[in-house]
Each structure stands twice: as C-alpha cells, then as structure tokens.
Structure prediction request, 289 residues.
Amino acid sequence: MLRSTSSIRISPIFRSARINQLGHALHADKIISSESIAQSQEILSEYLRYIALHNCITLTAVATSVFRDSLNGSETKELFEKQINIPITILTGAQEARLFFEGICVNRSIDPKLVYGCFDIGGGSTECIVSHGKTIVQCTSLPIGCLRSKHGFLHKNPPSIDEISLLTRHIHDIIKKNIVIAQPVSSSFAFGGTITCLARIICKKSAEETENIILTKEQLLTTCKHFSLLSDTEIGITFGAFLDKGRETVLRTGTIIALELMNHFNLSTITVTNQGILFGTLKQLFESI
Prediction:
C-alpha cells in the first residue's frame, strides 16, 4: 500500500480467489449446507497458510449476501471465526455496495463531472452504484445474483428457451423496479468473478490482464447465445483455460444480468475491473491505521 496526501494506492503482492459457492443450495431451504461449509473451511485453511507465509500482521474479514439470507448464517459465521481467529463482519446490502464503490475508486482517476454506473455481479446479489464523480446518488443491492438466479429459474442443463426467457424477464423487472435513471451514465464499471471470466474468454487474456478491458454489448450477446447451447460441463470443457473451477455453472446467468444492466442504463460498452469489495475493505483498513 502507498499513501499520498490525497489518496491511497493499493498494490497487491499476492492475490488468490477460490470458488466455493457457499450458497449453492441456499435458495431451496435457506440453509448453508454442511458440504459447502466444509469446502469453505478447506479454503480458509489454505488462506491461513498464505497469511502465515507473508507474515501478515493485520487481518480483516467480511461476509455478504449468503450470510444475510441464510437461517444458519450467524452459526456459520461463528464457526469460521473460530477457525481464523478474527471477527467477521456481515455487511448489509448497502454496506456491500458502498465498499464495492470505494474499491472501484482506488488507483483510479474519477472525473467529478461524469456520471458513473458501477455493478458488482455476485452469487447471491448484484450491487449497483450510480455516482456523480465520487458522490453516490443511488446505491442498490438487487436479489439477482448469478447463483440465486440459476437455482431459481434454470433447472434444465442446458436450460430451455422458456427458462432463459423467464429468467431474463425476472431480472429485467427487478432492475426496472429498483433503479430509476435520473441522468445518462457516462462511464460504467463491472466487477465480479463472472464478468472477469467473460473478459478472459472474449479477449483470451489472463485474469491479471483483464483490468480495464472494455466489453461491448455485441460481444456479450454473442457469448450468451453460445452459452445457451452448452451444458455447464460443456462450458467448462470449452472455456476451461479461462475459468476458475466451478465458475462454469453461473456464467450464463451472470452474462444475462450484465446484459440487462447494460440495456437498462443504455450502455453499449462496460469496463471490467478486478477491484471491488476487497479493495474497498482494504482502503478502509489502511485509512484507520
């Protein structure tokens, strides 16, 4: 981390992301499954080894929509806290959205005259921020995450045309009901594992090379049509070189969410960023030191 008199710049020396789909069965019974918890504990053990290897002094942990929506979220939180030996903060939807926006602004020049749209497409929810420069004018957490949407609407594999149509209409209606556009968006950013994977697939890039890549609506439409013909397994086989393991199951729903956001905000392009809630959380931590 570098600090100047006006801003904080964050330069990771190590970064790791694992897909555990903690909420993969959540939306059927509102319970985080024991299988998901065990898998998450394995990942946390791996992270603890990285922490020890890099001699980290200060640790922080936050939890998002799965913990908010589940009946055993508090119990699962306490179990994980005992494992990592630090408190975990369960963020509200608004807190999650604001931290995401803080992360977007790190290491980046934000023009105070422009209107920005920022979207964090997650597993359980999608956070949307509209701002004038760095001043937030609209902050919304929508219940249309990639995993939630898949389990709610796509039961066949590959999904039927009717399933995709119903899902698309549902996402469209949720966005239209909750987000009112007061002014046209000048510039937009999208964050999340799904949008990053789409950038990797479309542009044939590594994860590190996807920062600030611009995707067009036409590219996303073409990719979405391709996904609609393939099963989850076939998506994994076809695009495996560009996917985190487990991401193949939610790519089509994430693409639909991204397209419906672009339609609602009348966007022809969207800029991909690897910065989000993690960078926002780190920024707040550094500011408190």
Q: What stands out?
A: The longest strand covers residues 135-142. The two ends are 12 Å apart (CA to CA). Residues 1-5 have pLDDT under 50 and may be disordered.
